């Protein structure tokens, strides 16, 4: 698609290794994985968010506020 073959990928990986170091690569990979996971989760959630409070929760708050 972009003309990136195996030699180009190896050069990119070596540059990333030089910039971040071997110790940081697992942390970077984990952060990227979590970001992708959160993105997929957000894309599957419904568009609308229910912001109306439950009547049961309101009654509990009122009863706990008046001892």
Unreliable runs, pLDDT <50, ≥5 residues? none
Rg on CA atoms, Å: 24 Å
Mean pLDDT: 79
Structural class: mainly alpha
* Backbone shape: elongated
Say how many strands there are. 0
Largest sheet: none
Helical content class: 55-70%
> Helical region count?
3
SSE string:
HHH
Q: Report the span from N to C terminus.
A: 68 Å
Strand content of the residues, in percent? under 5%
Structure description:
This protein has 67 residues and is mostly helical. It is 69% helix and 0% strand. The chain is built from three helices and no strands. The chain has helices spanning 6-20, 25-44, 55-65. It is elongated. The mean pLDDT is 79.
Summed up:
This protein is mostly helical and 67 residues long. It is built from 3 helices and no strands. 0% of the residues are buried.
Q: How are the secondary structure elements laid out?
A:
Elements: H1 6-20, H2 25-44, H3 55-65
Spell out the key features of this protein.
3 helices; elongated; 67 residues; mainly alpha
């Amino acid at each position: 698609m972009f003309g990136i073959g195996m030699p180009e990928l190896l050069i990119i990986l070596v540059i990333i290794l030089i910039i971040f170091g071997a110790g940081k690569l697992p942390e970077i990979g984990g952060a990227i994985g979590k970001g992708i996971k959160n993105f997929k989760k957000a894309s599957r959630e419904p568009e609308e968010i229910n912001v109306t409070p439950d009547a049961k929760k309101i009654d509990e708050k009122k009863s706990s506020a008046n001892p």
